[in-house]
Amino acid sequence: MNEIKTITSYNLWANQRISNWLLSNEFKKLSQPCDSSFQTIAKTIKHILEAQVLYLSIIQQTPITKNKNDGNFVINDIEKLIEQSKDFSYYSSQLQTKQLNETRKIDFKFLSGNFSQGELILHCMNHSTFHRGQIITIGHQLKLTKAPSTDFLFFLSKLESDKRQQKRQKLE
């Protein structure tokens, strides 16, 4: 159970780092075509967002909410990805072991079966990680600089460092 909370917190942290990096670069580059499965950073962000929305709705057994854009699509999708990642992290932090083992039925054209909530969460977080890697690769093709580290062990190290800092502040 702790691993699920950690991985969804990691997903939020990594998405925030990627988002901050993207927002610090030229917006037009985010829609510039490259050799990748989704051709642009904007389309890759949208795909991550839509997958996270889909899997959280399956897990929560709620209707899928459509992503409505009102203006700058890329910026809206980036902001919505962060909000959705917060929702995913919060939801998973509330789950008990018994709930993580509850199954959900999936019936897609490419996949069907019964999977536990824990398995679905791990799959979705792994999916997001995969596509964040694609975003970094596209960014390199577009000559975007100073890509952030989103490695899981870097996240864990940062968590540990933050805990030590908080302990020191309490002692002062």
Ordered list of secondary-structure elements with their pairings:
Elements: H1 2-23, H2 41-60, H3 73-93, H4 97-100, E1 103-107, E2 112-116, H5 117-141, H6 152-171
Antiparallel strand pairs: 1-2
Helix pairs in contact: 1-3, 1-5, 2-3, 2-5
Explain what you see.
The chain has one domain: dinb family like domain (Four Helix Bundle (Hemerythrin (Met), subunit A), Up-down Bundle), CATH 1.20.120. It is globular and about 45 Å long. The longest helix has 25 residues, at 117-141. It has 6 helices and 2 strands; from the N terminus they run ααααββαα. Helix 2 packs parallel to helix 3 (73-93). It has helices at residues 2-23, 41-60, 73-93, 97-100, 117-141, 152-171; strands at 103-107, 112-116. The protein is mostly helical.
Largest sheet: 2 strands, antiparallel
**Strand and helix order:** HHHHEEHH
The total of helices stands at: 6
Q: Could you say what the CATH topology is called?
A: Four Helix Bundle (Hemerythrin (Met), subunit A)
Short summary:
The chain has a single domain, classed as dinb family like domain (Four Helix Bundle (Hemerythrin (Met), subunit A)), CATH 1.20.120.
Features:
single chain, 172 residues, mainly alpha, Four Helix Bundle (Hemerythrin (Met), subunit A), two-stranded antiparallel sheet, 6 helices, 2 strands
